[in-house]
Amino acid sequence: MNFTNEFVEQQIAEILAQMPEINSETCKQLIGFIDLTTLEGSDNVAKVQLLCKTAYGVENTVKGIPSVAAVCVYPVLVKTACDELGDRPISVAAVAGAFPSGQSPLELRLAEVRYAVEQGADEIDMVISRGRFLAGERDFLKEEVKRHKEACGKAHLKVILETGELKDPNFIYEASMIAMEEGADFIKTSTGKIQPAATLEAAFVMLTAISDFYKKTGKKIGFKPAGGISEPADAAKYLHLVQSIAGNEWVNNHLFRIGASRLLNNLVESIG
C-alpha cells in the first residue's frame, strides 16, 4: 500500500465522523487500557510506589471502575513496582534497550532487557534504532527486534517506532510490518520524549498494518499509542480507530493499551 498524507487524513475524518459521543462508560473502559507511566530522571522508589498505589487504588467495583492494565517504569524500578503491586492483576512494563534513543550497542541494550525481565518485568517496551532504519538498514531493524524478543523470554515485547521521527506514513507502515514479522507482541507509537508523539495519523497507518498482518498470518498484534494523550476525548478517538480498523476483537487490554501519565485523573473526573 502506498500512503499519502491526504489519504490518511481523509480516512481518519470519515472514521471519526461515525464516532459515538463519549460517556462515563467509555471513560471506565478506557481506564482499563492504561499503562500508567512515569519515565522521568527524578523517578525514585517513593514515586513508583505512589504510582502503583494509584494504579490499583482507582479500582471501584461499586462504580464499575477497573484498575489500569499496567504500570510502566525504568528497569531499575521494576522490582519496586513488583513488590508494591504484589499479586494484583496489573502488569509491570519496563522501557529497556537504551530508551528513548536506541543509540547504544545492541549487546548492551539486550543486557538491559534481560536485567528488567530478571527483576520481574512482564512486558518490555523497546525502541527501534530510527537513525539506522532511516539510513536504509532494514536488516538491522529485523535483527534488533528479533533479538530483543529472544531476550524477553516469557515477557511480552512492545516495539516503539517513534513515529514522529519516521514521519513518512510509508516508513511507519514498513517498520510496523517488520516489527510484527520479527516477533513484536505490540507496536507502539512513541516514547513520549519527542514531538509529535502519538498522532491519529500514525495510529491509522499502524492499525492498518496490524489488520493486514492479521489477514496474512492469523496473528493478532497489539497496538499502543503513547505520548501526549491526556484528554478523555482524545483517548476515545484512538479507541474508535481500533474498533473501526482492527475490529472489536482488539478492544481488550491484551491487544490495546494507552501509554499515559495524566489521562487517568481526567478520566476519573469525567466519570464523577
Per-chain topology:
Blueprint: H1 5-16, H2 24-31, E1 34-37, H3 45-57, E2 70-73, H4 78-85, E3 91-95, H5 106-118, E4 123-127, H6 130-134, H7 138-152, E5 156-160, H8 163-166, H9 169-181, E6 186-188, H10 200-217, E7 222-224, H11 232-246, E8 258-260, H12 263-271
Parallel strand pairs: 1-2, 1-8, 2-3, 3-4, 4-5, 5-6, 6-7
Helix pairs in contact: 1-10, 2-12, 3-4, 5-7, 7-9, 9-10, 10-11
Describe this structure in words.
49% of the residues lie in helices and 12% in strands. It is an alpha/beta fold and 272 residues long. The protein has a single domain (25-271), classed as TIM Barrel. α1 crosses α10 and α7 (138-152) packs across α9. The protein starts with a helix and ends with a helix. The model has no long low-confidence stretch (mean pLDDT 97).
Task: Pick out its properties.
12 helices; 272 residues; alpha/beta; TIM Barrel; 12% strand; eight-stranded parallel β-sheet; single chain
Compose a concise summary of this entry.
The chain has 272 residues and is an alpha/beta fold. The chain is 49% helix and 12% strand.
Oligomer: single chain
Reading the helices and strands in chain order gives HHEHEHEHEHHEHHEHEHEH
How helical, in percent, are the residues? Answer: 40-55%
CATH architecture, by name, is: Alpha-Beta Barrel
CATH topology: TIM Barrel
